[in-house]
Queue: 2 jobs
Job 1
Amino acid sequence: MSWRYLRSADRLTNNLSNQLINMKIFKTNTNITLFFAASVVAAWTVPKIAEGKEIVSEESDLKQASGGKCPPYGCPLLPRDMYFDEEAQKALKAIRMMNSQTPPNDDAQAEIELDWDQALELLKNVGGEDQATLTLIGYKGGNLQEQINQDRAFVISPYHIQEPEGKKTEASSKRLMGVFDGHAKLGELVSEYSVSTVPKLLSDKLEHILAQDSNSVQKDIQMALIETFIEVDKTAPAEKSGGCTASIVLQLGGYAYVANAGDSRSLIATYNKSTSEVKIAYVTREDKPDLPEERSRVEKMGGQVYVPSLDKMQMGASSRVLYVDPVTGGTNGLAMSRSIGDWAAGEKGVIPDPTVDVIDIKALIEGDRECSVEVDAASGETSTAELCHGEIEVFAVSATDGLLDFMDINDIAKKVAMSLYADDGPHPLSACESLITTAASAWWQAKNGKYRDDIAIAVSKLSLD
């Protein structure tokens, strides 16, 4: 039974509750179960403290800055921790169980503490039927209570940009989504600042661009994205240490602008509703120091790139830009050639300038569309069959390397597509939960429980209104 058929109150009945069961994504897995069991001591007390400074959650920070209301650019969906946030965990569990197709046993049924509406209400600022965000804090060694999640994400739909009267972006569809992966000692401060600052800066720049008559709008928008990343880098709280990746997708009408700095990634994909086929149309590159053009820039700026042996790289080792850590005085290596913050590495060639590509959403829809042609016997005129209309859908996914290091992008795209479009697919929040769970288990197995990266994901339809 699809989650789509559970939204109406008449379906949330006692009869329905007897037909529900846990989804297959949470089959017993010894490794991840042991990790979560070991972590439960700190489950509800994970601190948000670094260097004596409290890190305010994105949602609280954004609302406080705008007088308790959403910012002028729109209300962001912001991720909650799928395991260590007790309220979110209960809501996700209820959605998962109500999304299943096999009746639960009595014990499983007794564990459902929320109904469908209650669960969705609790997570309304996290995701819905068209978009979703979710995160899971990692483990970097040491005391469990001292772990800090440095990953951030958001989806803003609609993304408000003030336009002059009489000038409207084609189809009026405006969305902004992305992820920010903090690293180094104070990386969470930089990712927190970025997720709060990028939407406003970019909105202000786009307002100016859309108010002008220009034949170079796309180039101007690309430049606005680059300038936004550079300005955030300059003003970020990156003293003395800290940085973050940034991978965002901006939809303006029939075009998607994808800006990426670092080794988080965003992808654009299509879903064929007739065949259920999923195709990756575009995916950002990982900005690694060993890429020829990246290595050349770093070395020209006086930096040094460490490239591990092929055997080590096949085992997961990464090339790195070497720099002197301003806190410890030791030599560190940054596993990316572009990022926000990381000022010490910036002196050695690491830049915040993102690569920015433009994807024609309409072209994807038309290019993937297989239409049958009908010929009128009397007139001989041809026409496109109705089945062609609305057959192709386009969506986007942004994720940090905590997910991407252990998940194939094709598998990610297929899971997300089924959740966004298939009648028998999981809810988008459940799809994100499933992907994170799979990656977390893989981290546990690969690192023997000694390390697991933070994980964050954001997904959204790129519909043309």
Job 2
Amino acid sequence: MPETPERCTCGTVLVEDARFCHRCGRPANDLTAAEQEQFSPAPPPPPPPVVAPPQPLPIGFGNPVALRVAVLMSMGIMMTEILPFVNYLFFAWWLLAGWGGVRLYRRITGLRLSVAAGARLGFLVGLFAFLGMAVLFSFLMASSAGHDLLDQMVKQDPRTAEVVNSPAMLGTVLLMMLFMVFAMVAGICAAGGALGAKFAAPERRA
């Protein structure tokens, strides 16, 4: 090992056998490459990459959790529609289905929906509930019970015979009825979803 000089190039008196100047850090002797690597400080590790948390999916047909919640709550609506006496409160059940859909979605995902997102989820509940009602209504009208219902309508009001005997007019009336039912079901369920989101406890927003 080379002899250690008495002074560093900066003028500082070096300690005996010192490898580096305690003032400026300059090597006291010419070190080999291995020694320089040994005494050189290790570079700090790179910082870990910052991973942004995934953004929650918006409420819609592309959100599988929202679709499952909407289908489940619509099945609850269908159950209330076929129970006697209970089906008289259908407006309340539609409103509660939208509200319950928001609460169930929050329980599954831990997210608090905005009022607009809650209304969209309630609309999905109403949409699936309407589709189920439309299917049941189609089966009813195609069955003998549906024909008996039309006959009773004609007997009670003979003027309806013109509508019943005209497929075009009957189809138009049925489409108008279905549109009105869809507007009511989807609108009330959306209102329930908006209310459920508005009065929920504060938490992360979707």
